[in-house]
Structure formats: C-alpha cells, structure tokens
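Appendix B, Record 12. Input sequence as logged:
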Amino acid sequence: MKKQNIIARAFSASLPVLMGYTAMGMAAGILLAGKIERPDIVLWAFLSSMSSISGALQFALVDWIDNCTPLLDVALLTLFLNMRYAMYGLPLLEKFKTAGFWKKSYLIWSLTDETFALEAASDIPDKQENIRYCLFVAFFDHLYWVIGVTFGALAGKFLPFSSRGIDFAMTALFLVVLTDQCREKRNRIPALTGGICALAGRILFSVDNMLIPAMVMMTAAFICLRKILSRHFLTEEN
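Logged structural output:
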C-alpha cells in the first residue's frame, strides 16, 4: 500500500476522534486560560497539550496549578489515572514488535483510549504498513488534541465570557461512558466497586485529599476481586 493511501486511511479513521478531541481540548484550554492568569498562558497550553494527551490530566492540571499541588501528589495521581494504558499496551505488543525504538516510543507515549481502539481494530496484514498506519493515527489524534487545547486557550484569553461550569465537561463525559457501560450486566460489579471505594474515600478523607486514597482502594479491590471478576465475565460471555 502506498504511503499516501496509508495516510488517507489513517486520517479517515481518525475523523470521529477529531470531533471529540477538538471539543474537549477547547474546553480544557478555555478552563486553563480562565483560571490561570498568565500573559503566556496560550504558550503553556500548547506545551502542555504537546507533552500530554490525557484529557483527565489536562483538566486536573488547572486545579493542580491553581492550588499549588505537591509534585508527589501530582505524580501519584498521574500514575493512577493513567494506569489503564499499561493494560491497553498488552494487546498491541505483537503489532509493535518490529517497530524501531523511536517509532515504538511514540506509539507507547501517544496511546489514548480512542487511539487504542483504532490501532487495535487495524487489520492491515503487512506488519510494517500496519505500524505506519498506527503512527499516523497516533499523530492525527495528537494533533487534534493540541489544536483543541491551544485554540481553547486563545478563546479563553481573548474572548470575554465566563468559564464557570466548563470543568464539569470531563466529569459529564465519564458519566456518559459509565452509563453506557453499565447497560451491560457484567460491567456493573466493577462500577459498583469503584463507587463504593470513592464513597469510602470521601467519608474517610477530606474533599481535597480523597482522590489518591480512593484510587489506592480501587486498585487493591480489583486485585483482590480479580478471580471473581474473571469468572463473572466468562459466565456473562458464555
């Protein structure tokens, strides 16, 4: 397959991501410019979106900067929020096996929920062409996020409107995804487990300090329930 065809195919596959990433990115950029008053905030929005494609972290970054969150807390929160990407990488080991060091590094770093879905669904038989396709998918998705956040910061800095409520955009997205996932019976136990751990974290700790303990409890709970959940999923599939 010609390189132009690979690029066109990757771009076509990434179009649904374009709609989501630019919208969410703009919300994150507007929030960043609205709450952090710096003359160079647009530059920082660009740099932060270039170095991180995690939507949840981009929204959390605003509060971390605003509240001067300790670096250790930032590191732990980042670890727990992005731990799922380690699981995403397992099915892609064979796909990326023959990629060179730099290609493999970018493919690993740029992995997101949407990018993983597109890369995992790729059925190009030639391994090298498949790697090129995945690289362009990752590049396009990354580009959409950078454009969304940067233009959002520009809008938030120069257009006079309130950013109040925009920080709920990511929460609303997760609630929509959770609601959709809970329609399947097999997903309700993990969702309930996460909800109980979050509630316990809120009861035992203050609002500002509950997130890390809640995530630790969730991780421990899922490890302890691993065998039970595996049998439950297998039963539901059968």
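The radius of gyration is 19 Å.
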